[in-house]
Prior knowledge:
The protein is mostly helical. It contains 16 helices and no strands. The longest helix has 32 residues, at 11-42.
Amino acid sequence: MELSKTPLSFKPFQFFILGHFLSFTGSWMHTVAQNWLVYELTGSSFYLGLLSFFSSTPIILLGLLGGVLIDKFNRKKLLTLITFLSVFPPLILGLLVQTYSVSFWQIALLAFLLNSLTAIDLPLRQVFIGEIVPSGLLTQALSIQAFSFNLARMIGPALAGFIISYYSIYLCFYLNALSFVPLLLFLLFFIHLQDLDFKNKPSETFNFKKDLKEIFLFLKNHPSILATLLSISNFTFFGISTLILLPVIVHKLYGGQAKEFGILSSTIGIGAILGSLYIFLKKEISQKLEHLLKASLLLGLSIGGITFSPFWFLTLFLSTLIGFSFTNFFPIANSYLQEHTPSHLKGRIMSLFSISFLGVSPLGNFIIGILGDILPLKIVLIAYTFLLIIFQFFIFRLLRLRKYA
């Protein structure tokens, strides 16, 4: 394999990233429409929070089980099965809404089922990328994936808003079901892992207790992997969770309304796309752990800067840096974990990656939401910024000390 090529030089990756983009665009449409549907049905923020709980719980409960499945079974067949099953929850929800027979608990149950599949799907997609591109191109491939994810994050909600306004909300759920079909067809007919020499060889035995013990022993013997996972949790808990306060920041610090909130959110998305392009064009990052520390520092300083920014345009620039830090952190952390993990353990490590991000996020959002109500906004933001930076330095300092002990 010529490492002078880019990941897009490989046909399997071309098909995968296109299917990945379409399915995530549908997923973002689904999320926006689902939240709007629940609010229309209940008129209650409590039920929106309850729906978020049902949506995030499977990531925590099933994450490690999903990782074991990824390591024990053929990854292409497993991804094909998960993609096929993912069609049905949004399809059923669309039918329920169209026939005026939907209730909150039906929405919550279908959200739980869909996100149970997502608990396996997310880490599986991360590992699968390592199956269809050479290891030397993995960081670039993950930056392209981050770019497609953030592009879908911008397009999906906009499409959902247009469809809800001018057509019918159930169409968003049908389109989400349909969005999985291209990836499914690509997996069935166009992505042939047998043609590649870096495919995984699934294990033959399944012993959940033994498999968990194996991964914890691996983490004990590889402190850099454990430090990276802790760093991701810290980045999520004290960094990303501050974004839930964006509406409060816009209103209290700048006297803005929904328009300004939308603009600020968009600049974060633009920054994330620019960050993905930066990683893609840079091609090779040698000191990845140092890069994670720099991205964390950039996030912390940007949040702190917004807290005291006297100018709206400076705030928009800083919010762009926030998005830039996201896609300079997660793809690098992801590639570092995969590059330093044996193939037969990658599913479990990527599941821990998902838990460190998506599992920690709801808890971080919940706690900062409470603190935002009882403490001055600037105090909360500065405290979170300080803790983010201090803990990141502490994690990597301990790793450095252990390395040279």
